[in-house]
Amino acid sequence: MTEPRQGRERADVDPAVAEVPSLAIDPLLDRPETRIVVCCGSGGVGKTTTAAALGLRAAERGRRVVVLTIDPARRLAQSMGLAELDNVPRRVPDVDGSAGGELFAMMLDMKRTFDETVEEHADPERARAILENPFYQSLSTGFAGTQEYMAMEKLGQLVARDEWDLIVVDTPPSRSALDFLDAPQRLGSFLDGRFIRVLMGPAKAGGRAGRKVMDLGLAGLSRFTGTIDRVVGAGLVRDVQNFVAALDTMFGGFRTRADATYRLLQAPGTAFLVVAAPERDALREAAYFVERLAADRMPLAGLVLNRVHTSGAPGLSAERALAAAETLEAKNLAPQGMADDPTGQTETERTTAQESPSPGDSGRERPPGRRSPETHSSTGSYPTDAEAADHKTTDGGHDSGGQHGIPIPREDIGHEGTGHDEGATPVTADLLAAALLRVHAEHMRQLARENRTRARFTALHPEVPVVEVAALPGDVHDLDGLRTIGAALGDSAP
Amino acid sequence: MTPERRLHVVSGKGGTGKTTVAAALALALAEEGRRTLLVEVEGRQGIAQLFETQALPYEERRIAIGPGGGEVYALAIDTEKALLDYLQMFYKLGGAGRALRRIGAIDFATTIAPGLRDVLLTGKVCEATRRRGPDGGFVYDAVVMDAPPTGRVTRFLGVNDEVADLAKVGPIHHQAQAVMRVLKSAETAVHLVTLLEEMPVQETADGVAELRAAELPVGTVVVNMVRPPVEGPAAPAGVDRRELAAALRSAGLRAPTRLVDPLLDEGAAHAERRSLEAAQRAELAALGLPVRELPLLADGADLAGLYRLARRLREHAW
Prior knowledge:
The structure holds 2 protein chains of 2 kinds.
Chain A: H1 15-18, H2 25-30, E1 36-40, H3 47-60, E2 64-69, H4 74-79, E3 90-91, E4 102-107, H5 110-121, H6 124-132, H7 134-140, H8 146-161, E5 166-170, H9 179-192, H10 194-199, H11 202-215, H12 221-232, H13 234-266, E6 270-276, H14 280-295, E7 300-308, H15 318-333, H16 347-354, H17 385-391, H18 429-460, E8 466-470, H19 479-490
Parallel strand pairs in A: 1-5, 1-6, 2-4, 2-5, 6-7, 7-8
Antiparallel strand pairs in A: 3-4
Helix pairs in contact in A: 3-19, 5-6, 5-8, 6-13, 8-9, 8-13, 9-13, 12-13, 14-18, 15-18
Chain B: E1 7-12, H1 18-29, E2 35-40, H2 46-50, E3 61-65, E4 71-76, H3 79-91, H4 95-102, H5 105-112, H6 115-130, E5 142-146, H7 150-166, H8 170-184, E6 188-194, H9 198-213, E7 218-226, H10 241-250, H11 256-285, E8 291-295, H12 303-314
């Protein structure tokens, strides 16, 4: 497995990318003035995992942290040792508290948050009227958009409780993810809107709004609400009117709090981190986000770039590696007179010519295409090649388009001085080297793709500090996994 | 023989490339003499970016010719215009629609009550699916919708069930019921795009369960961005590093001893990834749905890549 941060001096790094300032996460997390860290970015870039890893790292460095996640995968909750996350901050067990810190985690429950807000800010009778209103029940259980309001509301509540000295917030996976910032404004424009007053009927709308509607050429409010009735059905209008009337007294509070939270996000104690992966769409969203944060005068700390691939042998190019692989393969095929066919067109023939089946292996797991079958000793857990062939996974246009993996037993490599096991037949070093070179070539191509994508972002925003997190083969399953990511985030000082 | 599927809803976890798959599917279904419509509902102009054209206006316009020779039309739905359209179509509101906008009713509908946005989007897509031309035949042979992500798609598609409950009578009630009938019919299929990684696969499994519980028809699981496995020999139980270095040297590589560790690390990571992928394939197979794989496009999803994916998708029945 590639160690995080390894191989930073990549041979093919775009010079512009190489000069990007690095984002120092540890000082940011350690500074007592940092009170809120907001992770934003498009879906699927590891945003929630990043938020959890930051929270854990800050806690183990001595801060009292709460992580507010929006829609975490169940496994993330489990990775923090919690069966599930709910609307109440839960203390995460097994966090190293030797530096005096603690970690709490919670998940935004939209409906609960909405209900609690209503219960807290309305008298019991009015609260009951709201909670039982069918329109409210639909609105609060997660029509798109509600999540954003409630995330702001919950963040405001957490700040108000003043029990934590650092709040790490994961943002909702919205279409644009920017709705999070829009929430106060939209709420504001809604509350300022005449529609509300019109809906609430002539008595409330009265005066200016009422006259305006008349001025618009409608015969009058009755005609207007009549139209709405016709469109949505009278029952719904009544429900909405009742809902709005019931919420009326709370609106001021809603708006004041949303405005306050918005201003809090602009304050120096907040740090926004844009999270992305080195993929075109994710970085395009990230660029958009950087611009949007600037427009809203929100304090951007930098870009967290997840899933970056690195190589310990950056100087060996894909082309060179492939050429060497072909040389090695040709050399080994030559005795069978197959040197002119290194790409594996007549695999059945080659198999018969070269090898006999090993007795211990089932033929089903080893279609004719596999080379050197007598040597593969641990392919049991491996995806069967027949399956891979059925899936037609390979891209016809790809140089290395074979059907087989390179099953290297993980436990047996990477140690100094490992020799042959007693009794095991040695694979020819040439063929193993060739396969490794092909893997490397594929890897270098990926690196090149990532660099091209990054160069585009860097050209737009050369000033944005970046911290890279190396790609891990699998997902995070426990606190140690989060710690590994936290370490990759933290140890970024150049 | 089941009726032909005409409405293809494409969803997937964020980052899995569902817009690309939706576009490729619209191309794939555009066989000679046929016409498909690709609909974008999230206002990101991802279709325009994929097809390397200017931002799409709110109108159905021809955007490409599929590899099979048919026409692909595209539509990016603008919620506000869709609402006015909808009001005009069903209620002949005329000037009242403009008045609604001026007093903020449209803002209300499209932001504060965003469920209505989902109603409009699903309504528009169903309308396009059911639309017939002067000859009585369907205007579009197939409609492909680039839908919201897996975590939200069941609620998105099911919004009309909720609306039918909220508005118990009246035209909205009937319209909502009509839309749900289309979405739950055998004419519709919801396809889920995933990657061979744990979280997207888990989300796909959850999504399939939710869709099934909501009685929405699940179609195909599309595994996107599958990296080609590297061909090679099986390894022995141990690796002789000196022999490996010698092999690398014989291939003309310089400083081969310094390459051994990095190459073995990369090989091990590759093997680990492959075995994780195998586990994810098994999870997907257990869903009991057709699974199709699409290769990772080495140069990203450009127009040429899109057509390559489309040709791959044409190999299957949808």
